# Entry
Amino acid sequence: MQSNHKKTIVVLFFLACFIFGLLAEAWAGPPPGKGRRHSRRSFQGHHGIGFLGKGICPQIRKTVQAPDKILTQKNPLEKNREVVDAGESLFQIEAQPTACKICHGVTGNGLGIMAQGLNPPPRNFTCRSTMESISDGQLFWIIRNGSPGTGMPAFKNLKDREIWKIVRYLRTFSGKRR
Ligand code: HEC
# Structure
């Protein structure tokens, strides 16, 4: 009898520790810093999908079409590391007044921090089915001129070459190896 009583106490003790562990974990919230745990939790954060979801795909697209001459133009810059890296810097940081990632997202999924509430939403560059239907020239033209009546601004101060570099980079989001 006596030893059974002891066993019960021991079991209860471990159970209490376990429950305390769960509560403490929940109460502490996401740990500071990055890491998997953090990103998983923010994925289910208060915005529902957070910034790391797959994005909307396919996307409904009503964007105005570029004039024929530009529409069919191919990217004059070859696809190499240098070009893609330069495009990345412009997309993620350098483009003025607002870096593309703010709306289009660091991962190109269209879920950037300013994407909330934009209607139509920013293009999801990771969505292959939508991106396949958009020519290089079209991408170029919208980056230069913006998409009137939407959140997509015109980037008049980017040089042609800079825009073509960005276009190269945009294509990597829906490339086969991603
Ligand atoms: C303030 C938010 C915002 C910023 C900053 C922004 N975009 Fe956009 N972008 C949008 C929105 C919204 C759309 C959707 C427009 C539409 O549906 O016509 C869009 C659409 C596009 C498209 C799709 C064109 C098409 O024909 O479908 C491209 C390409 C694009 N953006 C490139 C860029 C690049 C490159 C940058 C940075 C140099 C950038 N955007 C910065 C909001 C933004």
Remarks:
- Residues 2-43 form one domain.
- The radius of gyration is 24 Å.
- Residues 38-47 have pLDDT under 50 and may be disordered.
- The first helix runs from residue 2 to 28.
